Amino acid sequence: MTDSPTTPRPLTFGWEEWISLPALGLPAISAKVDTGARTSALHAYDIEVFGSSTAPKVRFSVHPIPGRGDLAIPCSALITDRREVTSSNGETELRYVISTTLEVAGQSWPIEITLTDRSSMTSRMLLGRQALTDHISISPTERHLQPELSYEVYHSIQVRQSAPNRALRIAVLSRENNYSTRRLVEAGEARGHSVEVIDTTRCYMAINALAPEVHYDGKRLPRYDAVIPRIGASVTQYGTAVIRQFETVGTYCVNGSAGITASRDKLHAHQVLARHKIGMPATTFAASPKDTGNLIGLVGGAPLIVKLLESTQGKGVVLAETKKAAESVISAFRGLRANFLVQHFVKEAAGEDVRCLVIAGKVVAAMKRTGAEGDFRSNLHQGGTATVARISRPEREAAVRAARAFGLNMAGVDLLRSDDGPKVLEVNSSPGFEGIERATGKDLVGKLYDEIEHKVRPNPLPRRKRPG
């Protein structure tokens, strides 16, 4: 004998009740019951449509507590309709309609909600006839007949931990259609987010005190939940200026402009590492040709590395095996008016290094890169190969400290294994995902999205101090 479906116990609503909209991240909201209205209405502002034309979504923010504009809950939902609604004062407005779940007294059911600005209303929510199911009766002269909730829940850390994984609008700043860019788009969209690739050099900025904006192809860019910078070395200066503009408008950027700028300048980067007492190969820099001999001596003599400050992917990096060769290379670079570093050659590394991918202060993957036959450089772009690496505790700590020194939430930290411990070669603020995902078999882009989703959740509301 099968059990028959249970009938919801009858509920009686007064003219005002406490409700929850858990799918929107609203655990407590006071709603006015209006049997004269067909559809319910929720206070919403910054209403913006995003996503594909076949399944459009809407994102918006809610001030659930009247008079507390310092608490804003960001929400998103699929659009189910768009319809004209006439308010009690006779004004007609075209509103987006969404579906969500209403919870009251342990019972829940689906309802439709229209989105509109109710900032002038005492109640942030209006419950219409469609939300009042058959088992609900109305007592129009009473209020709060169902269990009373409290706005205190918004002070709790639980409001952050229990926030739903809403659909996000994310921009990837990239000029390349490569593996990393495609993975960021595919993985983000698989999670229900809208991910747009923006060519950094086609962005332009309106810089002013009251309404700073970023424009693209003749239009102001929308408000993004997060920006993932993939800034190429050739456009570092302009790219970091664009990121600073996003930072100015309050957008969460996975890596900030200051960290990208410092990590790209190899001289600056080594000075940052030295300031934080992070192990690295002995490094020297000078402007005058009279100091060539001293430069070579300070790194322990030949063999040594001569490295252009603007070099990437192993380009502009030369191994000088003798003092005479080192003097010739340094002279040639100076003749080209190029800025360069002279660095100790860690012979025991034997053409291998370790790339640690750090996300949110943790090493999430590591690979060992081995240079091509006869090449001291281990870069994959120079023909190197990659295998998964097991790293020691000192190596893990060095990688985490290096990423933290630059304030980078995501970084590729390259280490050499020397006789006296790990040496940080470079901190990459736009690490590629292809080599390390294939070497380790891990979904590392997914780990990045875990961090983005965590960062953009609402924070608990700070309590106001009571006077006296």
From TrEMBL:
Residues 270-453 form the ATP-grasp domain. The keyword Lipoprotein does not apply. Keywords: ATP-binding, Ligase, Magnesium, Manganese, Metal-binding, Nucleotide-binding, Protein biosynthesis, Ribonucleoprotein, Ribosomal protein. One of its GO terms (cellular component) is cytoplasm. PROSITE patterns: ATP_GRASP. SUPFAM superfamilies: Acid proteases, Glutathione synthetase ATP-binding domain-like. Coiled coil: none annotated. It holds the Pfam family Rimk_N. GO terms for biological process: SOS response; translation. GO terms for molecular function: ATP binding; metal ion binding; ribosomal S6-glutamic acid ligase activity. Its cofactor is Mg(2+); Mn(2+). InterPro entries: Asp_endopeptidase, ATP-grasp, ATP-grasp_RimK-type, ATP_grasp_subdomain_1, Peptidase_aspartic_dom_sf, Rimk_N, Rp_bS6_RimK/Lys_biosynth_LsyX. In the C-terminal section; belongs to the RimK family. This is Probable alpha-L-glutamate ligase. It comes from Antarcticimicrobium luteum. The lineage of its organism: Bacteria, Pseudomonadati, Pseudomonadota, Alphaproteobacteria, Rhodobacterales.
